[in-house]
Inverse folding.
């Protein structure tokens, strides 16, 4: 069986913006600066109702993680799920992956990581879904 031809590429989540330099974009409360990755009608911190888009950093630090050993059928396990504090502000939960998107096990709190995107799946109509994760920054590379 041949792989479907990719006709269109779409992000798995609304806050992932694809392109030459993929980024995460948050909704920032105009009143207090709280950052949200989902759609908001009101700020949970100050009750403000006005929001602006804010591009988040592509690097950060692992502040918490867990290794998941049991997953849904078809999902490779084990894998590492982490909370990443992004440089410049914002916190995101994501899997720790190798640069190609394959699961990675083994990370420590304090590990510097950077955003990577990867193809998750392609449907029969050629639409490729792209997800994101974070991969450890190698010493001396891109620093």
């Amino acid at each position: 069986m041949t792989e479907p031809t990719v006709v269109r590429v779409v992000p798995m989540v609304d806050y992932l913006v694809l392109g030459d330099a993929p980024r995460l974009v948050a909704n920032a409360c105009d009143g207090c600066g709280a950052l949200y990755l989902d759609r908001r009608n009101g700020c949970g911190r100050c009750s403000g109702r006005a929001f602006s888009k804010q591009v988040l950093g592509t690097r950060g630090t692992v502040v918490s993680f867990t290794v998941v050993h049991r997953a849904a059928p078809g999902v490779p396990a084990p894998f590492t799920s982490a909370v990443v504090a992004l440089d410049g502000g914002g916190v995101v939960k994501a899997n720790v992956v190798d640069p190609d998107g394959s699961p990675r096990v083994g990370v420590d709190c304090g590990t510097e990581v950077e955003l990577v995107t990867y193809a998750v799946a392609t449907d029969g109509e050629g639409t490729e879904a792209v997800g994101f994760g974070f991969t450890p920054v190698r010493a001396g590379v891109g620093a």
